[in-house]
Specification:
Strand content: 35-45%
Helix content: 25-40%
Strand order of the largest sheet: 1-2-3
Structural class: alpha+beta
Number of helices: 2
Radius of gyration: 20 Å
Shape: elongated
Distance between the termini: 14 Å
């Protein structure tokens, strides 16, 4: 099973001004979605999502990019750098684990007096 990860870092908090610069990004609201290449019985990919925020340092603005020129890829790179490789790996590993549990659950919730759902065939 292979999983792809989509990072959405398009929502940011900015300082209106910081020295000579305007709309300086200092906080990123990220959403990471893992999508498996394994499909459920209805033909949909298994997915898991995690959300959070990450503070971006504004101590060195020498490579400043104007807000109008920013791309999601730029902010994803900043966010991953601020998190560090270990935290990024842990986040993606957690999403992979959630997907694995969807595919092969180790626990199910049933209600007494209700019919037991049929087991899914693989």
């Amino acid at each position: 099973m292979a999983t792809t990860y989509n990072w959405n870092c398009k929502t940011v908090d900015c300082y209106p001004t910081d020295g000579q610069y305007t709309d300086v990004v200092y906080n990123v609201h990220w959403i990471v979605t893992g999508t498996s290449d394994t499909l459920d019985p209805e033909g949909n990919a298994y997915t898991a999502t995690s959300i959070g925020t990450e503070t971006i340092s504004t101590s060195d603005l020498s490579g400043f990019t104007p807000f109008a020129d920013l791309t999601n890829a730029d902010v994803v790179a900043w966010t991953k750098a601020a998190m560090g490789a270990e935290q990024v790996t842990a986040l993606e590993t957690n999403l992979q684990s959630q997907i694995a549990l969807e595919i092969t659950p180790v626990s199910v919730t049933l209600t007494i007096g209700e019919p037991v759902p049929p087991a899914e065939e693989e």
